[in-house]
Each structure stands twice: as structure tokens, then as C-alpha cells.
Amino acid sequence: MKPTVTWILVADGAHARLLANRGPGKGVEQLEAINGDHRPDSELVRDGLGRSFESSGSAGDMRHAIEPRVDPHRELKRDFAKHLAKMLAQGLADKSYDRLVLVAPPTALGDLRASLSEPVKHAVYAELDKDLVKTPTAELPQHLGAVMPV
């Protein structure tokens, strides 16, 4: 009988590690490290803030800077989640894994959930809302033991 392969995606808004578990007692092995785009503000917002004028009667005209409507760093994090979701969908289509465990801090986990296709959502076995991206691979099983046999 073929062992159940569980992919474990450990991610935050800019970094991710894809790991695999091939059954209880087998531990985890890292398959891939993925880095998102994390440019500084100066590269993300090239244009200056727009200007708005306000007429306040006798006080004269006042100028105000218009803040950008979208936080560029937040958009990069959402885009990274979409990239990860596409990768997970491809892995499922290729039958590279049977089930999926998502490990991410709450905001990144929400972005991932929103980006997953329906088939991938059905493959999700467990979720863990922790930031474990920088946790050494050898230490991950002790955290994952709460949601799956490792």
C-alpha cells in the first residue's frame, strides 16, 4: 500500500518552506525553500503622494497629501500567498501529495486560505497558526505533533 504523503507548508508573508512527511514516525524532510518579494518602501512606492485641495471658507485653501489606498507590502504578501497556492494546486494535480498541513501566523494563514483552490482546500488536513518559518527542520516535528502524527 502506498504511504500517505503529507505536504507541510510553513510560511509567513515573505518566506516559505515546503516539507513532506511520508507517514507516522518518518519525520519531515524539506523539499523547497521559497522567498517572496520583500523590497524596501522606496522601491515599492516610486511616485510621490498625490495632493488634494480643501476649501475651508475664510481660512483659505489647504493642501493634503493623499495616502495610497493599498499598502504595497500587504499586497506583496497577498501576491506571495497566491503564488504559494498555485504551487500547491500544481502539486495536488501532479499527485505529489495526498494531504496538506498549513503552518503560518494568523494573517498569512488567512491570505493562504483565501488563495487556495477548492481541490486544495479539500486536501487541507490541518492548520497551525504559528510562525515557524525560521524553526530548524529538526525541531518542526515537536510543533507539528499537535496536529498530525509525525
Task: Reconstruct the topology from this structure.
Elements: E1 6-11, E2 15-21, E3 29-35, H1 41-44, E4 50-55, E5 61-66, H2 72-93, E6 99-103, H3 106-115, H4 118-123, E7 124-128, H5 140-144
Parallel strand pairs: 1-6, 6-7
Antiparallel strand pairs: 1-2, 2-3, 4-5
Helix pairs in contact: 2-3
Protein name: Host attachment protein
InterPro entries: Host_attachment_protein
Organism: Hyphomicrobium album
Summarize the structure.
By secondary structure, this protein is of the alpha/beta class. It has five helices and seven strands. This is Host attachment protein.
List keywords for this structure.
7 strands, alpha/beta, 5-stranded mixed β-sheet, two-stranded antiparallel ribbon, Nucleotidyltransferase, domain 5, about 30% helix, about 150 residues, 5 helices
